[in-house]
């Protein structure tokens, strides 16, 4: 009975460790507004990727950003046309869709992905406009 309990506990530990490791190594970095602004100011190879809908994008957007709706059926085929070796700052309205997009990009070979996490789009837009 004791051997079964030890085996069970050891199995749970191994599975938990594997799950934690795979979840924490998602292939992209979550960044806050301060880190995003620093990245924008310091990078020469950065593309800002807006993954909101076309309607949201046309209502207001960051200059020189690219819009590819993460919820559209052709999202993957569109990102496959992008240079996977460039840096991407991925954002949406609140950080949820950008996390999905960042994960898809990471599993499709993109090297440097920064997900603007827990930042309201209007705060990001204001920071960009006042930084110019």
Structural class call reads alpha/beta
Note the total helix count.
Answer: 6
Q: What integer is the average pLDDT?
A: 87
Question: CATH H level: which superfamily?
Answer: Rhodanese-like domain
Query: If classified by CATH, what would the architecture be?
Result: 3-Layer(aba) Sandwich
Distance between the termini: 69 Å
Poorly predicted residue ranges: 16-24
**Shape, principal axes of CA atoms:** globular
Helix content: 40-55%
Radius of gyration: 19 Å
The tally of beta strands, per DSSP, is: 5
Strand proportion, as a percent range, falls in 15-25%
What spatial order of strands do you see in the largest sheet? 1-5-4-2-3
**H/E series, N to C?**
HEHEHEHEHEH
- The tally of domains stands at 1
CATH class: Alpha Beta
What's the quaternary structure here?
single chain
Biggest β-sheet strands, sense, barrel? 5 strands, parallel
**CATH fold category name:** Oxidized Rhodanese, domain 1
Q: How does this structure look, described?
A:
The protein is α/β, with parallel strands linked by helices and 132 residues long. The chain has a single domain (27-131), classed as Oxidized Rhodanese, domain 1 (3-Layer(aba) Sandwich). It has 6 helices and 5 strands. The protein has helices at 2-24, 33-42, 54-59, 75-79, 96-107, 121-131; strands at 29-31, 46-50, 66-67, 87-91, 112-116. It has a 5-stranded parallel β-sheet. α5 links the parallel β4 and β5 (112-116). The chain starts with a helix and ends with a helix. InterPro entries: GlpE_sulfurtransferase, Rhodanese-like_dom, Rhodanese-like_dom_sf. It comes from Brachyspira catarrhinii. Residues 42-120 form the Rhodanese domain. This is Rhodanese-like domain-containing protein.
């Amino acid at each position: 009975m004791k051997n079964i309990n030890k085996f069970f506990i050891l199995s749970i530990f191994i599975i938990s460790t594997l799950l934690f490791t795979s979840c924490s190594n998602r292939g992209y970095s979550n960044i806050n507004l301060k880190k995003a602004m620093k990245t924008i100011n310091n990078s020469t190879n950065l593309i800002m990727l807006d993954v909101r809908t076309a309607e949201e994008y046309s209502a207001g957007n960051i200059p020189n950003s690219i819009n590819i709706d993460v919820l559209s059926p052709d999202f993957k085929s569109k990102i496959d046309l992008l240079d996977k070796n460039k840096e991407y700052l991925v954002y949406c309205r609140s950080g949820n869709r950008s996390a999905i997009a960042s994960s898809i990009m990471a599993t499709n070979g993109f090297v440097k992905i920064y997900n603007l996490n827990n930042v309201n789009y209007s705060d990001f837009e204001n920071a960009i406009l006042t930084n110019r």
